[in-house]
Amino acid sequence: MSILPSFLQELSDTKAIKEDDSQVVKVPKEYGIDFRTGQLTGKIVEGLEAIKVWIWLCMHTERFRHAIYSADYGASLEQYIGHMLSEEYINTDCESEITDALLINEYIESIEDFEAVRNSDSLNISFRVVTKFGSIEVDENVRR
């Protein structure tokens, strides 16, 4: 699920990368985001940078909260903040939640080296995302 309108993506998908002899992979595109402020930059980013944007948006969209998104999009991370849960439970369940949320993206192959640390009012999550275009290190602080 991209934030670009589908008709715009179809019109602008002129770039493609050959994965092997039998399969061509389209290069993902998204609107750029300033990750510090959450504001759109006005630029269109491609490839690994577009996947970073998609991951950031997915992690900052609470699942089932917004009717505009499908039930598959987003992650239910607020449930781990402000509750007395063991670190083991948070790590295991949060990893499952993030993995389920991110693997719906056709470009993401796996999630590795996952770690979640709960602070008093936030959750610091770090992991590596393996994609068809390379790896991305994610270190994100999620708040309510």
UniProtKB/TrEMBL annotation:
Highest taxon of the lineage: Bacteria
One Pfam family hit: Sheath_initiator
InterPro entries (UniProt xref): Sheath_initiator
Protein name listed in UniProt: PF10934 family protein
Organism in which the protein naturally occurs: Lachnoanaerobaculum saburreum F0468
